[in-house]
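Q: Entry one of two.
A:
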Amino acid sequence: MQPFAIDTVLRIAAMTGTSPDPQVQESIDINPACEVSLNTLADLFTRSYTNYFVPIEMDASSLSWLLSTQTIDLASSVVLDVDGVLAGFTFISVRGLSQRVAAMGVLPEFRGRGFGQKMLKQCIENAREVGVHKIVLEVIDKNAHALAIYRQLGFEVSRQLVGYQHEAATADRKFDDELHEIDPREVAKAAVHEGVGKLPWQISAESWYATRPPSRAYTLERSVYAIVSQVTETSARLNAILVPRTKRRKGWGRRMLSALYRKYPNREWLIPAVIPEDVGSDFFLANGFQRHEIRQYEMVLRLDEASTRYPYEA
């Protein structure tokens, strides 16, 4: 699985196929995911992506990591039971009065029967009951079927999100900066101090607060910050790069990239499609990155009048 993929495909497997056959009578129950063990959820997660174009293998340990880093609440999440068989799941992340559809999956033999939509409807109903103001999700822009379903449920497109990749990144010989590893929470604190707002859920300060190993955070003289994750022998993922306002347009961003390339040489660098298209585009393109073909829409369902008065911020 390529490092950028998990952020862009987790909901697709539940939203493909055709409408359910109204003649089929089945016993369907949708229950809180907290009633199921981690091992069972991990197995359901893995089997939901069997034979999919980006297979995802999950065990209890990796699922626990996902739950903690994505602030997924199993009491707000659901599992689907069809005739006594666990057939799907929807994971919901929670922050205050906002929620995010973090992951969805349906077993291959149960797809195309509207079960993804049924689970999402239940999650929306649950959110309304507890006073949630809004729910956000991301969907690949070319997934017309899922887009239509989300719109039917009341979600509206708020903006387009893009990703980047750099296949031949090399350190700039002009710079010899040494990276200093820091707690990822320091990156989050810097973002809050800088007043960085209205960013998508996955690149907000709250997400950076939840970062944990094996992800790593670095700084150069407190003049630029970065978070790196999913480092393999051939690739690495750039989760965050932040330059304080007083340090911008002074080359600090480029110096950070060079220092990262030196620490993790001979790798392709990937930025998942969670970046607003009007944020950082000039910087990334000027430093050798290309926009990835995968693009997403951020969609928001507003459940309370307050969410209209106060625009969504992760």
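Q: Entry two of two.
A:
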Amino acid sequence: MDLDKIITHGGGSHRDEFLACCLLISECAVPIERRDPTEAELADARIAVVDIGHQHEPSLSNFDHHQFPRDMAPTCALSLVLMHMGLYDHAKQFCDWLESTEHFDCRGAKETGEWIGVTPEQMRRLDSPIDPTILRLFAGKAVHQPGEPLWEVMRAMGQEWASYVRGLAQQIEFLAEHGELWTIEQDGAAFEVFAILKRNSPLGDSATGVGFHLKAIGKEESVVAIAYPDNRSNGHGLRKFNDSPTLEFTRVADEDDVHFAHARGFIAKTSAETPERLKELLAKAWVGTPA
């Protein structure tokens, strides 16, 4: 992507075009102008036109959604920029708030609340001063230049988010390649554990992203614990998954190779390195399914 400038609409600012601009300037350090585009600018691929212009032409760097059919699945300017950058599918997988942002921008607060299953009052209770303050600052100027505080914050946000999505996508590939599903039998019952024993994952912590991976393979309901390399030692961590009540790691606190078990029983750290020993500790932590 090679841009000279970005143009987005004036007036009030919204999360979709703001974040779309953040992503674009994360790759191209160019000014953002808040005004209507000219026909010549719409035809110039070096000028990105975001959330205005009634055109979706990625080859011309035009990312507006307002011309889409009313019954189309909620798709906003942010969606279009993410698609253009090849990040949309992973962002949708890893960022639960993205779908709500699309609904809010395309359907409004009332329909979005009904879709989520909350009332307008409950929606307001989730408000934060961060969003409206930054959006008002963005709306308060016609031009935002590189080097200005808000522009630099926007670029940092875009870089951080894009890096997070790309890194997590690599992490999921790592988990798919190196992760194992263990079935452990204890007291006449069997339970599943996800084990990722290989170190040096893309994000540094092998356990990062396990929930996304298990959801993708349809195991988020059946897996009750994870085993993973401990970043602070050569041993491993054992942890409940989704706070499963079927395990209690205080039960292994007195084992010679367990150097930490949280008093609340949700995690333990061990110097054990072999799968066989890790499975033994997991079996000893099993308390069964609550009646």
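A: Comment on entry two: Residues 123 and 204 are 36 Å apart (CA to CA). The first strand starts at residue 5 and ends at 8.
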